[in-house]
Write a structure and sequence with these properties.
The complex is a heterodimer of chains A (about 70) and B (about 400). Chain A is mainly α. Chain A contains three helices and no strands. Chain A starts with a helix and ends with a helix. Chain B contains 17 helices and 13 strands. Chain B has a six-stranded mixed sheet with strand order 4-5-3-2-6-7, with helices on both faces. By secondary structure, chain B is an alpha/beta fold. In chain B, helix 5 links the parallel strand 6 and strand 7. The longest helix of chain B is centred in the middle third of the chain and has 17 residues, at about 220-235. Classes of the chains: A mainly alpha (about 70), B alpha/beta (about 400). The interface of A and B includes residues 30, 35, 38, 45 and 57 of A.
């Protein structure tokens, strides 16, 4: 499974009932709220067994699934 | 009855304000700007002071038309057109927009409206606790579970004050600030050990929501400010190492980038938001690389280097409420976090007081939409104190100091 597909699957699990693809704007649209952002960061860290540096946890890196995959 | 917990110093600030402006408040329509938790707390303190001529105003159309405790929530336009003497009280964080709204409508600061944001004076009390001369003493480090107290409960004391009474005030120091992180606690203990007589025993009261993987990034902005003020004061009075300066820089950076409350939008579904918050803060996956774990280990190392025995306590958690909100796995997941955390600490000697499941839900406050599952009511505080003081190391410490005196 490609990285971008794994990220999409994780975001879909955190935000069910929302129509999301790789290019969907996630932040300003309110799809990802403050809490969901940290749920997402935890899920990504656990899935990829990594630590996401706190400097990278900024809105710009979570705007779309593509951006998240790029950051990873 | 709904019971409200509030930081002691913020309560004192609001109470002093009400006392010194009592006549004005008694003779005006008191309009609380912001129908959230802070507004609710202020309303209860006003009521305790027999001021009940209250209304709420909120810019959120979803709240307008609702009632809190029988008091109406209006839109701003509705209240400014009422023909009676009004005083606006604004217990809001980052209220610039609201103050501008009031100014544009012709209201004057400190005459018609008052900024009642938390002045974050808690750190002053903490600095006094650092400076307070004691010898042969025990230290307790905790966070909001220690510093909050209950507005409507029988005794207006916090768990921190009760701990101090039970340990003899001249034989203990209790550090209880809301919104603390393990890294802040490490720096505080380091500052204390470098500049004061060494304690005989250290009790680290771990609030597990503050040990969660991203707790240090999710604090409300006011708590980063509180950390900064505390660090500045410590630097003023003590010789400290580079770590604390480094932490000061990091805190400012985290405040600027704040992604916790205020950084991004909240979910419009409050129930969903509460469940998510509780899962994120009490049902997480803990890792050895989490900042909180790293600094807990550094704290234990520091205590070991200084030959100070350590006790880690896990305070009671309202697991019944947790299960009601997040499902029957809640308690098992919570117990597993503690179990896993302890596996990271096997290289160190410490005693454990695990009161996690020692209290049922009748021991906790019932707070409106609260996501904090560890704030005990008076009964719960008493039970927890009894639990702590059954510990052999604490009992023998108290026996030793009372015998020596």
């Amino acid at each position: 499974m490609k990285k971008i597909d794994i990220v999409l699957k994780i975001v879909e699990e955190i935000c069910p009932f929302k129509d999301i693809n790789e290019k969907t704007e996630l932040i300003d649209s309110g799809i990802i709220t403050s809490l969901e952002l940290f749920e997402l960061v935890s899920a990504l860290e656990n899935k990829f067994n990594i630590e996401i540096n706190e400097e990278l946890i900024v809105k710009e890196n979570f705007v779309t699934i593509e951006k998240i995959a790029e950051m990873l | 009855m709904e019971v409200i917990a509030i930081d002691k110093s913020y309560y004192n600030f609001l109470f002093d304000f009400i006392q010194s402006n009592n006549r004005l408040l008694m003779n005006s329509k008191v309009i609380i700007f912001g129908a959230g938790i802070r507004g609710y707390n202020l309303m209860r303190i006003l009521e305790l002071s027999k001021i009940t001529n209250i209304a709420f105003v909120d810019n959120d159309p979803q709240k307008q038309g609702e009632k809190i405790n029988g008091y109406c929530i209006y839109s701003f336009d509705e209240v400014i057109n009422v023909n009676c003497k009004s005083v606006f009280l604004c217990p809001v964080e980052k209220g610039a927009q609201i103050f501008e709204q009031l100014e544009q409508a012709g209201f004057k600061k400190n005459i018609d409206y008052f900024n009642l944001d938390n002045k974050l004076t808690d750190y002053i009390e903490t600095i006094e606790e650092f400076k307070r001369p004691v010898k042969d003493y025990i230290i307790f480090f905790g966070s909001c579970e220690l510093s909050s107290f209950l507005l409507s409960d029988t005794f207006d004391v916090s768990l921190a004050e009760r701990l101090k009474q039970h340990s003899l005030p001249e034989k203990c120091k209790v550090f209880a600030l809301p919104g603390m992180t393990q890294r802040m606690h490490y720096n505080m203990i380091n500052a204390l050990l470098k500049n004061s007589p060494k304690p005989k025993l250290a009790v680290l009261m771990l609030e597990m929501s503050l040990v969660s993987p991203h707790a240090h990034l999710m604090l409300e902005p006011q708590y980063y400010t509180l950390h900064s003020k505390l660090i500045e004061s410590l630097i003023d009075i003590y010789e400290l190492d580079d770590e604390i300066n480094e932490y000061a820089k990091i805190i400012n950076n985290r405040l600027e980038r704040s992604l916790g409350r205020g950084g991004l939008s909240s979910s419009p579904n409050l129930e969903d938001e509460i469940k998510r918050k509780i899962k994120l803060t009490y049902n997480y996956e803990i890792r050895g690389s989490n900042e909180s774990v790293i600094y807990l280990i550094k704290t234990l190392e520091l205590l070991k280097e200084n030959n100070i025995p350590a006790i880690i306590t896990f305070p009671p958690i309202n697991y019944q409420l947790g299960e009601n909100l997040c499902g029957s796995d809640f308690s098992r997941n919570y117990a597993n976090i503690i179990k896993k955390l302890l596996t990271f600490l096997t290289a160190y000697d410490y005693d454990v007081i695990d009161a996690s499941f020692a209290a049922d839900s009748s021991n906790f406050i019932e707070q409106l939409n609260s996501t904090n599952l560890v704030i005990l009511n008076t009964k719960g505080q008493s039970n927890f104190i009894d639990f702590i003081f059954k510990n052999e190391a604490i009992k023998s410490f108290l026996h030793e100091v009372s015998t020596n005196d």
